[in-house]
Design a protein that fits this description.
Strand content: 35-45%
CATH class of the largest domain: Alpha Beta
CATH architecture of the largest domain: 2-Layer Sandwich
Number of domains: 2
Number of strands: 20
Order of helices and strands: EEEEEEEEHEHEEEEEEHEHEEHEHE
CATH superfamily of the largest domain: lpxc deacetylase, domain 2
Number of helices: 6
């Protein structure tokens, strides 16, 4: 299947998921409902609707958080990644209990399982797609970058990480759109942190819902709460995050995305710069 071509898609029925926030540690639940064509992904809390779009991002410190009119929806990237990986265009996400999306096992696996069980249906309208027509690159002074290039109409993403760390130094992975591959090889990859970061994260009020089951903790000699689900689980999770943040463009990208040493902040700054460029055209997917 050559995502992003084809018709728009939504769920066949609603899904309810409960858990705890990765950063707040508080109980939270969401109800995902089917939505009409051209709705996009819309988060709903009370009577406030917040579209899943980069314009509504309010914070990108270790997570992507959306906000509007004093209402914040935290840590949306894992759920948005599941929507991207499954090729789902339209859905309402009712957020209840807390302000954070349930962290579950620190990956997108449960979201994908629930959506698969609910079923995905095609709708009677083609997607509006962002077709990359020339190379565009956003780079920082430290050498990290996100870039896109034309690739004939499909979607491909390459993600690379590099650290000055005795165990985790360089990893790279590639994804070409395939819901089956996403569900088996990307969605299960859990968020990760270095052991020496934990105290700092907690001091900043982050990671309070983290535990040995929903985060990969990396020490000098390897994974401290292993075994890892994949030998390269960290970079697969970075790819998972990249796909979720790219969903904030609001339309699928027809092109190849490459990210090097990038995170949520870099993803957002890339989207803002890319939209202001002349490197793409809006087209109807066929």
């Amino acid at each position: 299947m050559r995502y992003p071509c084809g018709r728009q898609r939504t769920l066949a029925r609603e899904v309810e998921i409960r858990g705890y926030g990765l950063h707040t540690g508080r109980p939270s639940s969401i109800r995902i409902r089917p939505a009409p064509v051209d709705t996009g992904i819309v988060f709903v809390r009370g009577d406030i609707e917040i579209p899943a779009h980069y314009r509504w991002v309010v914070e990108v410190s270790r997570a992507t958080n959306l906000g509007r009119e004093g209402v914040t929806i935290r840590t949306v990237e894992h759920l948005l990644s599941a929507f991207a990986g499954m090729g789902i265009d339209n859905a309402y996400v009712e957020v209840r209990g807390g302000e954070e999306i349930p962290g579950l096992d620190g990956s997108s696996r449960v979201f994908v399982q629930e959506m698969t069980d609910a079923g995905v249906v095609e709708q009677e309208k083609s997607r509006r797609c962002c077709k990359v027509v020339e190379h565009f690159r956003f780079e920082r002074e430290d050498g990290s970058f996100v870039e896109v290039s034309p690739n004939g109409g499909g979607f491909k993403a390459c993600c690379t990480i590099q650290y000055n760390h005795p165990y985790l130094d360089f990893q790279s992975t590639v994804f070409e759109y395939d819901p089956g591959y996403y569900s088996e090889e990307v969605a299960p990859a859990r968020t990760y942190c270095f052991y020496e970061e934990i105290a700092h994260l907690l001091k900043k009020g982050l990671g309070r819902g983290g535990n040995i089951h929903n985060a990969v903790v990396i020490g000098a000699e390897g994974v401290l709460n292993g075994p890892a689900r994949f030998e390269d689980e960290p970079v697969r999770h970075k790819l998972l995050d990249l796909l979720g943040d790219m969903k904030l463009l609001g339309s699928p990208i027809m092109g190849e995305v490459r990210a090097y040493k990038a995170g949520h902040s870099m993803h957002l700054r890339f989207l803002e710069a890319f939209v202001g460029s002349r490197a793409y055209l809006w087209v109807d997917g066929k």
